[in-house]
Write a structure and sequence with these properties.
heterodimer, A: alpha+beta, Alpha-Beta Plaits, 2 domains, 4-stranded antiparallel sheet, elongated, B: alpha/beta, Rossmann fold, 6-stranded mixed sheet, 9 helices, binds adenosine-5'-diphosphate, binds magnesium ion
């Protein structure tokens, strides 16, 4: 008995959809576009988040120390770095190692360094930080140590990035709310028209003793179905666009003078985020479809 | 039993009363005409019975159940025990005759097989078995109203409410519709017909409840339409109905062609309704 009612509801919702092909098309298109935008925002946000993570770890904060620093001073700094929870990892480059690096970076011109006294080069600690937001505090702390002469970090880049990320996240949230409201409105209107076009039939159903739930379910299913189709379409679109962009930006790109900012360093592979936006899209689609039609149906169908 | 107990009803707080201080009783198995001019309150009376409207004062009882106390979500279960017939037939134009009747059973979650059996039976009762596949606009008015009656009867309601059932029909069709209603009544269903069709009321000589401006003007058994005593065959108060109330035993005797124990079906409906009602009010 229950099952039969469910089947009847599904049949009626499909009939509704077939009966208003234009209306259905308009709703599906809107939901798809809305979820597509949503998917783009999510993907951008995820990638931006990853970019911050990569940037935070990649260009280490470089702590330059006086070449003449004592071993005690070195140990103090090492101990501090080991203890700081914000320090992901650190390495120390001795003046010799710095010299080697310098030599390599000069390539064919390295003969110019033949008489170079590497002892004049500093000790350098390369520190990778966990959280770029705390970088400034870290710099202040480490500067206080004796022997530290200079602290370099991609300060401006990180701060800008953090700001950008915050904006992206706020934008995502705002877009989410606006698009949610718009889609709810569109679905609610579609269902309202669908209900109106069958007003006579609904009226008769009430007289014959149909319950509210019995009359409402097909419409809620109709909305949910449209939401789901929209979600699948938009997921497919995001998937396709992302794959295309990924290939162009990451796989295809050979030379890069962008450093860490080169796409290949932070753009997430599709496999890592496909399920996130597909799930979010599906969840949103179903939610919007069901809630939108429920809003209409509660208002316009009362026994 | 249907009872109106000092019912007053206004559509809006300050609107004039559509019904005022109206009281009467209709016993199980009666055939009653509710007559009165257009705007006298007949349809309002029907809406009170189907819980479409609530009275401003007084109480409507169906089988002892006070309708103003009925929870909204139980209203559909009440409506399943009342068959409704309308002046404008109210058929769904996109559904066939069969589907129009069947969908009243689908709502109850009846199985496909029992739907097919019951719908065929009701359609042969109203004489439209052969037009099963026709669409409403391929039928005459009289035939459409028969479909309306079939739909009202398909779930074996204990009460049939008809609001101007012959209002859109010519005299010949009206007559056959009334004959059908009478037959339904003979099988135990309480039939209440709202009408201002004078000829028909006069011919049928049933109990007449006449209202004017929402007030009870007269309540007479075996009456004629016209007001004024000379038209009345009998004006004894109708508390004890004369119009051969089909008792319990008669109610069990359903027409042979339906071949189904209606009592069971009817009881079942009421039981399920009672069940919801009791469970809810506990
Ligand atoms: N939905 C409504 N809203 C306001 N007034 C109504 C409504 N329906 C009926 N009325 C008024 O109630 C009175 C009784 O109407 P009704 O019951 O429809 O009469 P009848 O069916 O006997 O023609 C009339 O005065 C009518 O104008
Ligand atoms: Mg009326």
């Amino acid at each position: 008995m229950k099952l039969r009612k469910i089947l009847t509801a599904i049949r009626d919702s499909l009939l509704n959809i077939v009966r208003h092909p234009l209306l259905t098309l308009a709703s599906v298109t809107t939901v798809t576009l809305m979820l597509l935008l949503m998917g783009v925002f999510i993907v951008v946000s995820l990638n931006a988040g990853n970019l911050v993570k990569v940037v935070a770890q990649q260009p280490p904060v470089e702590v330059w120390c006086d070449a003449t620093m004592t071993e005690q001073q070195q140990e103090d700094i090492a101990a501090y770095l080991a203890a700081d929870s914000n320090v992901l990892s650190f390495t120390m480059l001795t003046p010799e190692e710095n010299f080697e690096q310098l030599k390599q970076s000069m390539g064919q011109d390295q003969s110019a360094l033949d008489n170079f006294d590497y002892a004049k080069l500093p000790y350098v600690y390369q520190v990778k930080l966990q959280d770029p937001d705390l970088a400034e505090a870290f710099v202040a702390q480490i500067k206080a140590f004796p022997g530290v002469t200079q602290v370099d970090m991609a300060e401006s880049v990180m701060q800008k990035l953090t700001k950008i990320i915050n904006w992206v996240n706020a934008g995502t949230l705002l877009a989410f709310i606006i698009l949610l409201v718009i889609s709810l409105f569109i679905i609610a209107n579609m269902v309202r028209l669908s209900v109106f076009s069958r007003a006579e039939e609904i009226n008769i159903m009430k007289y014959v003793g149909a319950t509210n739930a019995y009359i409402r379910w097909p419409y809620i299913l109709e909305g949910t179905l449209i939401g789901t189709v929209g979600a699948l379409l938009s997921s497919g679109l995001v998937y396709g666009i992302y794959q295309w962009l990924y290939q162009r930006l990451v796989t295809g790109q050979s030379s890069s003078d962008l450093g860490v900012l080169a796409p290949r360093n932070f753009v997430l592979p599709l496999s890592q985020l496909a399920w996130i936006f597909i799930l979010v899209n599906l969840g949103l689609g179903v939610l919007i479809g069901a809630a939108g039609s429920a809003m209409s149906v509660r208002k316009y169908i009362k026994v | 039993m249907i009872e109106f107990d000092h019912i007053s009803m206004a559509y809006a707080p300050k609107a004039p009363l559509a019904l005022s201080d109206l009281s009467f009783r209709i016993q199980d198995g009666e055939f009653v005409f509710v007559i009165g001019q257009s705007g006298s309150g007949k349809s309002t009376l029907v809406k009170l019975l189907t819980c479409e409207e609530k009275p401003s004062a007084g109480e409507v009882y169906i089988d002892g159940l006070a309708l103003t106390q009925l929870k909204r979500r139980l209203v559909p279960y009440l409506r399943r025990s009342i068959g409704m017939v309308f002046q404008d037939f109210r058929l769904i134009p996109t559904k066939t005759v069969y589907e129009n009747v069947a969908f009243a059973m689908e709502i109850l979650g009846a199985s496909r097989r029992s739907i097919s059996r019951q719908v065929s039976m009701v359609l042969s009762t109203v004489g439209l078995r052969s037009r099963e596949r026709a669409l409403p606009n391929e039928l005459s008015g009289g035939e459409q109203q028969r479909v309306g009656i079939a739909r009202a009867m398909v779930n074996n309601p204990s009460i049939l409410l008809a609001d101007e059932p012959t209002g859109n029909l010519d005299p010949v069709n009206s007559e056959s519709i009334m004959a059908l209603l009478e037959e339904i009544n003979r099988n135990g269903t309480t039939v209440v017909v709202c009408t201002h069709d004078r000829e028909m009321v006069d011919r049928m000589q049933k109990r007449v409840i006449e209202i004017a401006d929402g007030r009870l003007l007269r309540d007479a058994t075996r009456a004629l339409y016209g007001s004024g005593d000379k038209y009345l065959l009998d004006i004894e108060p109708a508390a004890v109905p004369v119009s051969e109330p089909a008792g319990q035993d008669q109610a069990t005797a359903q027409p042979a062609e339906t071949g189904q124990p209606p009592q069971n079906h009817r009881d079942k409906l009421f039981t399920s309704y009672d069940y919801y009602y009791k469970r809810k009010s506990r």
